[in-house]
Amino acid sequence: MAKDRVVLAYSGGLDTSVAIGWIGEQTGAEVVTVAVDVGQGGEDLEVIRQRALDCGAVESYVADARDEFAEEYCMLDLQANGLYMDAYPLVSALSRPVIVKHLVTAARQFGGSVVAHGCTGKGNDQVRFENGITALGPDLKCLSPVRDLALTREFAISYAEKHDLPIETTKSNPFSIDQNVWGRAIETGYLEDLWNAPTKDVYSYTDDPAYPPLPDEVHIVFDKGIPVKIDGKDVTPLQAIEEMNRRAGAQGIGRIDIVEDRMVGIKSREIYEAPGAMALMAAHKELERVTMDREQARFKQRVSLRWSELVYEGQWFSPLKRSLDAFILDTQEYVSGEIRMTLHGGRAEVTGRRSDTSLYDFNLATYDAGDTFDQSHARGFIELTGLTSKLAAARDMKFGKGEAMPKLNLSQGD
Ligand code: ARG
Description:
Layout: E1 5-9, H1 14-27, E2 30-37, H2 45-54, E3 59-64, H3 66-80, H4 91-110, E4 114-116, H5 125-136, E5 141-143, H6 145-148, H7 153-162, E6 176-180, E7 183-187, E8 216-223, E9 226-230, E10 233-234, H8 237-250, E11 255-261, E12 267-273, H9 275-291, H10 294-312, H11 319-331, E13 337-344, E14 347-354, H12 362-365, H13 376-385, H14 387-398
Parallel strand pairs: 1-2, 1-4, 2-3, 4-5
Antiparallel strand pairs: 6-7, 7-12, 8-9, 8-13, 9-10, 11-12, 13-14
Helix pairs in contact: 1-7, 3-4, 4-5, 8-9, 10-11
The structure holds arginine (ARG).
Family: Belongs to the argininosuccinate synthase family. Type 1 subfamily.
InterPro entries: Arginosuc_syn_C, Arginosuc_syn_N, Arginosuc_synth, Arginosuc_synth_CS, Arginosuc_synth_type_1_subfam, AS_cat/multimer_dom_body, Rossmann-like_a/b/a_fold
Catalytic activity: L-citrulline + L-aspartate + ATP = 2-(N(omega)-L-arginino)succinate + AMP + diphosphate + H(+)
């Protein structure tokens, strides 16, 4: 009888390299690895592919998903202005579903019945992987070697040395880092003391905003909420993010230091840097202010809040998230035009906007000649919008609760 196969999300690092052999020993299954490039940089996919085979994988699947990630995941976050807890542009949360897609594809291709990942039992990522996997493949089972098969860091080091695995065991980073083209997440180590300020070595996508180079002016053209041109040059979503990472990163834009509510109930300290994401979002938000109907924009803020929570909580493939996507995409119909922005010293400041689909009407807005706004309508408008409060205030007065009346100090002294 053919052996069962486990499909393992593989980073090429120590823990997942050891997991290949360890899963085999513990479950008797063959291991197929899957490495996905979401713009995390680092080693070549071919090097990672070969390492997996050298560590005992029977098949090693690699995918360059950078464009797919930028187009189908990061752009939706941009169109949503999706920030968890009003701050975090969902960097890691966005990358898990695209990795999941490739894991499930590989499971189908190579006949895997179990999908494994290298997450601990304490974070959000385990939830994102497993919810995603079962949403795309309800018949698949999930396995976390760290959580379920006691694969600790110390054990991984000794296992790798004992089996002479082609992976470095000495390099130790004090932080747990997850990065992709949308940004970088840094946690653990001395950052776990909330009073400790991040030191310089924490950052790599951004330079110190306190010592910026000269201001950098950038023109970004959007089409339906997607950046399509930067400084006159056509760009793909991936190129737009990369270009803005470079330029906003040089100005120290997009550093975020927050205490965050994790899904498992704990609060944790997180540092992020997302220069491109935050600069693009600043531009996109301003273009929405120019082009979006007021009521649609107000409602979209609420949708965006819920959408961000769903994405954070591993519900990317859920029915509600899909319905909210449809709303968000519908709102982008007229979010087209150009934004001029100055990047400097940690700030991305919009200085100009123009759009053929703008709702700004100069003749209605101007206080100069050419004003077409009929001010006589304002009287009745105010009369009616103030009516309910006026009626309530009159009742208050009747019952001696004259909140509406300022309390006059009439005491004359005795
Ligand atoms: N707390 C962030 C999130 O849940 C970042 C997770 C980063 N993952 C990591 N292994 N360092 O989205």
